[in-house]
């Protein structure tokens, strides 16, 4: 029985995407031990990850001592194959110090993705999930050209509901960078339109989203605001929704992994970069502009100073899309 380790330290969305590969690994290697290595800030994910996965954590403050301690624990496990799905200096150091028999690094296609920034050329790079597959294929852990499947999280929550009764729509307004967020004032108009037809809205978020959600609420936005919540509780709220409205964020990827109906607001990033969700439950709203994508992971301001990528996704357009997807009463 082999010891196989997957190393992905951050970010939330990218960690969720690894569960697509985990499904293939568990199918093809049912008797092998699979270990997932990540930062301890994502410990709540252990409760909803595919079952029978073991975990090791890089502990805060994520400095040299933490890296050495984690590497020492991994070395004691005598890992046979390590897949470095992060490819940064920290992950490379951990994979070296933990002394696996073999290690494989996924290829980010960084130069190819950077070529798309602010370019009229939008030839797709491989989806991030497919890049994860390539690392496992080179290690002969899964067959070549394995079918691309969405990520999968396993709902394992208390029977007691988190969301108020009748709450069909969960809004995930937060995102790490400004150019990936919908305009706060648009939420006012959207929620008022939904309120007029008796549709319930819940905003959920964690500590990073607190300031933004307080501001959105202060504008007079209708709806229930539940924040700051720990990651596990946010996931529970997402799982209880019928529809999720969100942008390019880790929380939206959690909704995708729960097979939720998603309306995805695409701003300064672009599907050509290989991060977006796909499938028949995903509706992507976007505007085809020559300046998209303006960055790989979002920026603190619009480089063109017009922010038309998000401004063009009007509340009326989002409202119409939501109504078409709303489950019948």
Write up what this structure looks like.
With 329 residues, the protein is an alpha/beta fold. Helix content is 34%, strand content 15%. It is built from eleven helices and eleven strands. It has helices at residues 12-28, 64-76, 89-97, 110-115, 128-138, 184-196, 210-218, 231-240, 250-257, 308-311, 315-325; strands at residues 3-7, 33-39, 54-58, 81-84, 102-105, 169-172, 201-204, 224-226, 243-247, 261-265, 282-285. Strand 4 (81-84), helix 3 (89-97) and strand 5 form a beta-alpha-beta unit. The protein starts with a strand and ends with a helix.
Task: Provide a short characterization of the protein structure.
The protein has 329 residues and is of the alpha/beta class. Helices cover 34% and strands 15% of the residues.
Task: Explain the layout of strands and helices.
Layout: E1 3-7, H1 12-28, E2 33-39, E3 54-58, H2 64-76, E4 81-84, H3 89-97, E5 102-105, H4 110-115, H5 128-138, E6 169-172, H6 184-196, E7 201-204, H7 210-218, E8 224-226, H8 231-240, E9 243-247, H9 250-257, E10 261-265, E11 282-285, H10 308-311, H11 315-325
Parallel strand pairs: 1-2, 1-4, 2-3, 4-5, 6-7, 6-9, 7-8, 9-10, 10-11
Helix pairs in contact: 1-5, 1-9, 2-3, 6-7, 6-11
Q: Please name the CATH topology of the largest domain.
A: Rossmann fold
Strand order of the largest sheet: 8-7-6-9-10-11
CATH architecture of the largest domain: 3-Layer(aba) Sandwich
Total number of helical segments?
A: 11
Number of domains: 2
Tally of strands = 11
List the quaternary state of the chains.
Answer: single chain
Identify the CATH class of the largest domain.
Alpha Beta
Which percent bin holds the helix content? 25-40%
| C-alpha end-to-end distance | 51 Å
Beta-strand content estimate: 15-25%
- Provide mean pLDDT, rounded: 93
Q: Please tell me what the overall shape is.
A: globular
Biggest pleated-sheet summary: 6 strands, parallel
Radius of gyration: 20 Å
Low-confidence stretches: none
Structural class: alpha/beta
Order of helices and strands: EHEEHEHEHHEHEHEHEHEEHH
| CATH superfamily caption of the largest domain | Glycogen Phosphorylase B
């Amino acid at each position: 029985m082999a010891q196989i380790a997957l190393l992905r330290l951050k970010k939330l969305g990218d960690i969720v995407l690894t569960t697509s590969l985990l499904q293939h690994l568990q199918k093809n290697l049912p008797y092998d031990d699979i270990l997932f290595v990540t930062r301890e800030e994502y410990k709540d994910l252990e409760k909803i990850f595919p079952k029978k996965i073991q975990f090791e954590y890089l502990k805060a403050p994520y400095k040299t001592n933490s890296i050495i301690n984690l590497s020492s624990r991994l070395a004691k496990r005598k890992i046979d194959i390590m897949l470095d799905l992060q490819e940064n200096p920290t992950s490379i150091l951990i994979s070296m110090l933990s002394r696996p028999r073999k290690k494989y690094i996924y290829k980010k296609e960084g130069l190819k993705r950077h070529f798309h920034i602010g370019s009229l050329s939008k030839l797709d790079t491989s989806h991030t999930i497919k890049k994860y597959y390539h690392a496992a294929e080179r290690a002969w852990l899964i067959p070549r050209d394995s079918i691309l499947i969405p990520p999968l999280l396993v709902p394992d929550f208390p029977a007691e509901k988190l969301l108020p009764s009748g709450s069909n729509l969960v809004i995930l307004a937060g995102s790490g960078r400004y150019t990936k967020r919908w305009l706060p004032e648009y939420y006012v108009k959207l929620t008022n339109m939904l309120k007029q037809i008796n549709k319930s809205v819940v905003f959920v978020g964690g500590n990073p989203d607190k300031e933004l959600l307080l501001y959105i609420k202060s504008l007079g936005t209708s709806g229930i605001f539940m924040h700051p919540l720990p990651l596990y509780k946010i996931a529970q709220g997402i799982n209880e929704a019928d529809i999720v409205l969100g942008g390019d964020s880790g929380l939206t990827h959690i909704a995708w992994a729960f097979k939720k109906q998603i309306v995805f607001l695409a701003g300064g990033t672009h599907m050509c970069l290989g991060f977006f969700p796909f499938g028949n439950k995903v509706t992507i709203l976007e505007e085809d502009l020559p300046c998209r994508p303006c960055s790989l992971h979002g920026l603190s301001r619009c480089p063109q100073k017009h922010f038309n990528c998000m401004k063009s996704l009007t509340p009326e357009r989002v409202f119409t899309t939501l109504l078409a997807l709303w489950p019948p009463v």
